[in-house]
Amino acid sequence: MSDAQLVVIAGAGLVALALVLLAVRSPAAFSEFFLNITSVEFSLKGIRLSRAVKDVREAEREKRGEEPPATLTETLKRLGRRAPARLLWIDDNPPNNEREASAFRNLRLDVDQVTTNAAAARALAAHTYDLVISDIRRAEEGPEAGLDVPELVRASHAGDVPILYYVGEATAGVTADGHVVTTRPSDLFAQAERLLRR
Fold this sequence. Notes:
This protein is an alpha/beta fold.
């Protein structure tokens, strides 16, 4: 073995030792370091992981007054690997979901936002979607307008497009026809990743 090879091996060993010490002495600093390294990897693919994490954390704080689960970064990494994918988001008040939509876009997922079932029907007829996200209650269309979304998907012959409900208040975790209902931003992304994996 040459001297140059020994130097490279010794250097790699020192870096590994430094990372182990960082992980042991400061798990938070190690997590931040790992997130930065992963962000560099994803940014080469056009995915802005650290921005997506920031968007979801802020949405979670605003809507729930809580910190997201520790698994958030891993969930968003897996979701970023699903790109490119196209989402249709139906909500009569899109600004309420601004951070969440931004996070999806930072993960290189296309998001088309519409405000009514009629607009959703036109979008479903014009495009192919990998996931539909909808609210349920709409001021103009009624308190259960979102529950008509599965019929819109069937009528559009869009195939087996998964549907996920994201609402301000939920009385059940699943609709009568089996679609997940969530109120938590971090769960929105976990459920989206699960549904896109199908």
